[in-house]
Amino acid sequence: QSAVNVPRDFEGCSTLRKYFGQLHYLQSRIPMGTEQEAAVPITWTEIFSGKTVTHEDIKYEQACILYNLGALHSMLGAMDKRVSEECAAGAFTYLRDHFPHSYSVDMSHQILNLNINLMLGQAQECLLEKSMLDNRKSFLVARISAQVVDYYKEACRALENSETASLLGKIQKDWKKLVQMKIYYFAAVAHLHMGKQAEEQQKFGERVIYFQSALDKLNEAIKLAKGQPETVQEALRFTMDVIGGKYNSAKKDNDFIYHEAVPALDTLQSVKGAPLVKALPVNPTDPAVTGPDIFAKLVPMAAHEASSLYSEEKAKLLRDVMAKIEAKNEVLDQFMDSMQLDPETVDNLEMYDHIPPILMEKCAALSVRPDTVKNLVQSMQVLSGVFTDVEASLKEIRDLLEEDEAEERKLQELLGKVPPPQGSPPSSSSSPGLVEVSKECSKYMEVHEKASFTNTELHKAMNLHIGNLRLLSGPLEQVRAALPSPTLTEDDKQVLQNLKRILAKVQEMRDQRMSLEQQLREMIQKDDITTSLVTTDRSEMKKLFEEQLKKYDQIKVYLEQNLAAQENVLKALTDANVKYAAVRKALAEVEHKWNTTVQTLVASYEAYEDLMKKSQEGKDFYTDLEGKAAKLLEKARAACQAAEATRQQILEKEMKKQPPPRPTAPKPALQKKPPELEATSGLDTGDLPP
């Protein structure tokens, strides 16, 4: 009576669980199943149709109690704070997996699947909210949201079943519309967070398409939300503000700053859901839930004890098999990690068949700006011309100063004074104007030398990038030809093909192993021999266990074969990898060159505006310096002329101060020797007498 008129609280859940457990104890002892001796009529009313349904089967009573347990849990979940991910799906799952579906329409497989996925979806929603409040990583939030979508899609499929539609009537349309709205809404949330992840990874093209997809899905959700409460409408408006703002900002940034190609959504990896909610388990024999067995004395517990022993035998079998599987899996994982072989990117040959999107984008941008290279060359020429003019002016000034210095030294030497050291600046006493010119010339020369280094570097950068810009402005065939590509021999291709075949074999082995493990677990879970144990003598129990466990022999053989094959597969993979080493190195080098070339070309495109800006700054600087140098040159000429005039005046004064030269007496004519002495003219002075 308490279970039939159960209160709508957690105490009511406890009552239903206790009653369900006691029914389990009862039906295992007394023949109350269909057409059995102690069967009694049991009547319940279907929740949707309102019809009364009667079955002479105690399992029908258990099924109805389980249904109500799930329904009560869902009611309590709706009233509770949305902070727990435990859900009511456990009762419906146990009902679907352990009881016939023919008792009533509302216990059909489709209705139970609907209930299970609705409960799981709502529980996953709670976990999603918690994850968002906790600021979990964007990718995790996206996967959690994607799982909400998966659960609601399963629920929607159940709703679209013809039997479900006829049973639910108008409710079916309302539920379907609401579930579809949630599918679109949480798909939008998933893509919003995938866009955030792309933003964190600086994949700005992916960010735009994810935010755009989120916006599209949210608009579909809004269309389906007509007639929903104001709280739902408010949530949709808030979400639209968030996603719309994100999309507009991302698109604007990409259009004006990043210029990344926006990929098609179907080319990106789909978001796989992460099922992180757990259904509340149902265990009809848990004494902590059911309380003491009130029928314990009616029938000996030998059958239950034997069943527990059999369960332990099954558990032991599973532990033994899992120990072998886990050991092999550990070896396989370590081996594959050491190999660093990804079947998807072993050769990467497809990437060389086309120009990458980022480079295509730069080529397209230059195609509408055909004068790019011309403008850069002209800018270089103008800058070189101004640079040369400045250098010529400064050289002429320096030559004038050196010439003036030389003249000044000559003057000082004529005047008998010690000239100043060669290369010293003019003295203020001799020419104040030249002193000022010399100082300014030195200052301009220093500025020119510093700017000359910058100018040289700028020209180097321009020469480096002009070739790349010409390439990007030319035909796409030339761009494609400029990108490195691997050259593989037939032997190399055979090595690659063999390696990929063996990697596929490794994956096939993994998948088969997982499938066999799952089959084994399902067989063990469904293996219930309680009925046989009740009619078996205690002395025959061990023999019965051995016979029953033989059903697992075949799947164990398959697993053993799978595990044994691993050694041969890994040996073949090792051999293939050795042969692949040279090809791998060559491909890695080509890929590095390819990436470097792409980055260099992109860098040249991105450097264009900066080069033009710096070139203009250089022109402005040297134009200004040219004007100053020209003025200084005129000033130097004037100062040199003034200094020369001053020197001439000094020379004239010095000439006036000197006395006139004394007249010189006429020289007497040479006397001739007497003839008698001419003979001695050839004698040395040493021959003369003392």
From TrEMBL:
UniProt keyword Cytoplasm, yes or no: yes
Pfam families: ALIX_LYPXL_bnd, BRO1
Top-rank taxon, per record: Eukaryota
Keywords on record: Coiled coil, Cytoplasm, Endosome
CDD domains: V_HD-PTP_like
Coiled-coil regions listed in the entry: 499-526
Localisation: Cytoplasm; Endosome
Residues covered by the BRO1 domain: 1-332
GO BP field: early endosome to late endosome transport; endocytic recycling; protein transport to vacuole involved in ubiquitin-dependent protein catabolic process via the multivesicular body sorting pathway
Ranges for region Disordered: 416-435, 644-690
UniProt KW Coiled coil keyword: yes
Protein name listed in UniProt: PTN23 phosphatase
Organism, scientific name: Rostratula benghalensis (greater painted-snipe)
Gene: Ptpn23
